Amino acid sequence: MKNFFRKYYTDLFLGTRLFIAIGVCVTLFLFSFFIPILGDLPYFVFAVLMALVFVDLLLLYLTERGVFLRREVPERLSNGDDNELKIYLENFYGFPVSIGIIDEIPFQFQKRDLWFTTSLASREQKSISYLLRPTKRGEYDFGLTRLYVQSPLKLVSRRFNITGDKIVPVYPSFLKMRQYELMAVSNRLTDIGIKKMRRVGHSMEFDQVKNYVPGDDYRTINWKATARKGDLMVNSYTDEKAQHVYCVIDKSRAMKMPFEGLSLLDYAINASLILSSVALIKEDKAGLITIAEKTGSIVPADRRPMQLNKIMDVLYKEKTRYLEADMEALYISIRATLKQRSLVVFFTNFESMSALERQLPFLKRIAKFHLLLVVFFENTTLKSLSEKPAENVEGIYIKTIAEKFAFEKKLMVKELTKHGILSMLTPPQNLTVNVVNRYLAIKARQQI
């Protein structure tokens, strides 16, 4: 009896139509006391209702597994991107059904209203798609999927609990990385905001000797090859390859600040992954260093096919620390790891000039041996406050303070430039495009 109760009664829910019908029966019984002409009509209506409920129960419970469901989740999710998930449905009943679906998605999304409704004819198949945007890396636990099935009578509904427990890891933004890879391979990076850089002078990387065509530079004519072949031949050059590009990520408390759901650390991680991918496509060697109160992970620069997966696996585990970055440890790590002149892209954040001055001596030492690009973030909230007109005395005070902080950021750029350090002040949402643009500009100008 207990098993029967657990199997059937706990999954039985009364529908809206049944409550309306019960209300009609109660009304008829009530009026029958005052209107004798109604006679046995209330009893007849109630009997018909009970018969319909019994038929509805038979329709729903005679088939053991009336509806098939499968949740289709990717093996991993991309942080900060819209990831597509699907729910596949198939109706095994011999009649059309109406279905309500509750999908128990991970608690990190903080969504309790993920409810889908659909209808299926007999033997019909259907897929429902929806998007999820994770904002933290780590493991996400998916729970049950609950179906509420109604027959055409819609008096009661039967619940199916589909076990779909699955733990899915959320990795740095690999969806955008693939998009940038495709754009870079097809030379269509301009479609997503990447500027086309004019090459300055000639690269020292010799490619081949080819026949002259109108438009080739006369200065590249190879006179010896021309004399041997009897036709004009020119030397062809290509971008220098196998240059070292290191992304250095600050994991200290300065990178904890949130922006549109993601922390600055997550923006830096996503940009580092994409920059490493573009560098490998350009046949450079990509590496990674993370730093907080001590040196974190170090991935030596390489351009083997598995290098990008190695970098992604390291970035997946990184978390924000709550102490200040140890720049001396970073300098020692760079000197020990980087054996030749490299491009070092340092992702960090400064909110005051004093914070920059504490790190400046070590940044100058790094810049003596490598091409250092310091990337820090523009506070978009303060910028919007500084541009908003003040309406009262309090507004004037807030606007003045916001303008002061915004001006300090510009002073930081000038201070770094004064010491021969490349810098970039960027809003978080434009970080990836701006960093890739700067890398391509450095390559075009042959600064490494």
Automatic annotation (TrEMBL):
Keywords: Membrane, Transmembrane, Transmembrane helix. The chain crosses the membrane at residues 12-35, 41-62. This is DUF58 domain-containing protein. InterPro entries: DUF58. Pfam families: DUF58. Residues 208-358 form the DUF58 domain. The keyword Membrane applies.
